């Protein structure tokens, strides 16, 4: 019954005794740097629900940080992986061709909204690898050494993507970081400079790209501009379409490729198969898409998609790897995409997002600690502040809220440059009853934290 269950905490404390014993073992066996602030040791997961080793049931609004758009343990995906496992686990694609890789590359090339008629795709294992490989492709095609990224960006924890990522807490003691990465300002409209009219915002943020050209690296040395259509770690901030159009124009005028980092926003999360479909509907397409997370329902896989002439400029031997496009992962991904299209999960994302946004906006009127609500489809951020007028971030309240929700059986996660945003990344297979229960827990937790 777990798939349709509601949150239920049966132990007197969290973690429960069995979970605490495993968490204690974790502390002895795993580096402290790999942190976990949640009192949960998972025993099994189905749909949007987790049951821990003590029998507590949690509604998961984190979804493996956006990995589980079709939920835990989707039976058809499980069967697809089992069927592939009966044949073979692994066949390195540089040594033997396996049809799953080819079929998935064909499928993604058919649905990804990248610029060009003829497209190709290849695979890696993680979001960071996808972003780094997208940059490698752009450099190979343009023969240029530099890229532009943005404030608030998160692109990964490899050596190169640590340089791309904005928050340098993710790169502490890891320097010197990779060269050739320059940063412009992302359009965070909620925190526009005081007194700036909104109709001047695009010009203000675009100016920062020209500042990079002037002060850091000339336009003709820039291989790519890398944009998250909706920033994840940065605070769930959608890129305004008028700004995206202006960035596309800069790229076209200067021979720069536009990379959409869809690691977190892809696969129905925002109400489209890819968030950059919204760009396409407005007449803009990226040159390259890097994506991962929900691509294979939790089996490690990521993808890079671009038009053929861009892909085929890459020198032999500079992309690919041992596990990239593993047969089990490709089988999981093909079935995942089939389910997403068949069950209309993009539309479901919009339905969920509408209900969550409406409830969050009602809460915003009641609780002055809520500063902003924003997002696309079922990818929504709610920002907490000490005062709605000053907009001073309230990281302490946000941290308290995360722990209070967990004690009541709801798992939520923080984000944001100032650590004051809660991100909504719940599995899109969550029932209406579970959604309502989660929203009730969330509001009750806000009330309790305000009393603190």
UniProtKB/TrEMBL annotation:
UniProt entry keywords in alphabetical sequence: Aminotransferase, Pyridoxal phosphate, Transferase
Pathway annotation: Amino-acid degradation; 4-aminobutanoate degradation
Molecular functions (GO terms): (S)-3-amino-2-methylpropionate transaminase activity; 4-aminobutyrate:2-oxoglutarate transaminase activity; identical protein binding; pyridoxal phosphate binding
Enzyme Commission code(s) on record: 2.6.1.19, 2.6.1.22
Catalyzed chemical reaction(s): 4-aminobutanoate + 2-oxoglutarate = succinate semialdehyde + L-glutamate; (S)-3-amino-2-methylpropanoate + 2-oxoglutarate = 2-methyl-3-oxopropanoate + L-glutamate
CDD domains in the cross-refs: OAT_like
Cofactor(s) listed: pyridoxal 5'-phosphate
Keyword Transferase: yes
InterPro entries: 4NH2But_aminotransferase_bac, Aminotrans_3, Aminotrans_3_PPA_site, Class-III_PLP-dep_AT, PyrdxlP-dep_Trfase, PyrdxlP-dep_Trfase_major, PyrdxlP-dep_Trfase_small
GO biological process: gamma-aminobutyric acid metabolic process
Presence of the UniProt keyword Cytoplasm in the record: no
Family annotation (Pfam families): Aminotran_3
Family designation: Belongs to the class-III pyridoxal-phosphate-dependent aminotransferase family.
NCBIfam families: GABAtrnsam (TIGR00700)
Name of the featured protein: (S)-3-amino-2-methylpropionate transaminase
Phylogenetic lineage: Bacteria, Bacillati, Bacillota, Clostridia, Lachnospirales
């Amino acid at each position: 019954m777990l798939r349709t269950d509601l949150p239920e905490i049966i132990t007197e404390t969290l973690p429960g005794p069995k979970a605490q014993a495993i968490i204690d073992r974790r502390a002895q066996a795993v580096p402290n740097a790999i942190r976990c602030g949640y009192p949960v040791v998972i025993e099994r997961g189905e749909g949007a629900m987790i049951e821990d080793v003590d029998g507590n049931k949690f509604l998961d609004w984190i979804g493996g940080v956006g990995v589980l758009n079709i939920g835990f343990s989707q039976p058809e995906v499980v069967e697809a992986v089992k069927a592939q496992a009966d044949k073979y686990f692994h066949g390195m694609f540089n040594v033997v061709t396996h049809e799953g890789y080819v079929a998935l590359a064909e499928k993604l090339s058919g649905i990804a909204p990248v610029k060009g008629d003829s497209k190709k795709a290849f695979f890696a294992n993680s979001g960071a690898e996808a972003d780094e490989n997208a940059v490698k492709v752009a450099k190979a095609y343009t023969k240029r050494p530099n890229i532009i990224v943005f404030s608030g960006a998160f692109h990964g924890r490899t050596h190169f993507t640590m340089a791309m990522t904005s928050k340098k807490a993710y790169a502490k003691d890891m320097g010197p970081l990779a060269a050739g990465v320059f940063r412009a300002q992302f359009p965070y409209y909620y925190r526009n400079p005081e007194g700036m009219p909104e109709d001047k915002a695009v010009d203000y943020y675009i100016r920062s790209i020209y500042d990079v050209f002037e002060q850091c690296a000339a336009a003709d040395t820039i291989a790519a501009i890398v944009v998250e259509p909706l920033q994840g770690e940065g605070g769930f901030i959608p890129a305004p379409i008028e700004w995206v159009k202006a960035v596309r124009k800069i790229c076209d005028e200067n021979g720069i490729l536009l990379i959409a980092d869809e690691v977190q926003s892809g696969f129905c999360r925002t109400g489209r198969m890819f968030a950059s479909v919204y760009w396409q509907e407005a007449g803009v397409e990226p040159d390259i898409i890097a994506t991962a997370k929900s691509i294979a329902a939790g089996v490690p896989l990521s993808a890079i998609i671009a038009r053929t002439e861009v892909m085929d400029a890459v020198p032999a031997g500079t992309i690919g790897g041992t596990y990239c496009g593993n047969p089990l992962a490709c089988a999981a991904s093909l079935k995942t995409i089939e389910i997403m299209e068949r069950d209309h999960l993009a539309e479901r994302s919009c339905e969920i997002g509408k209900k969550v946004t409406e409830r969050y906006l009602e809460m915003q009127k009641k609780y002055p600690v809520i500063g902003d609500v924003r997002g696309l489809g079922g990818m929504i951020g709610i920002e907490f502040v000490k005062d709605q007028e000053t907009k001073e971030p309230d990281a302490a309240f946000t941290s308290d809220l995360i722990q209070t929700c967990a004690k009541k059986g709801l798992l939520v996660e923080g984000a944001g440059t100032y650590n004051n945003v809660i991100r909504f990344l719940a599995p899109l297979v969550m029932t209406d009853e579970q959604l309502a229960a989660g929203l009730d827990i969330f509001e009750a937790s806000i009330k309790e934290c305000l009393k603190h």
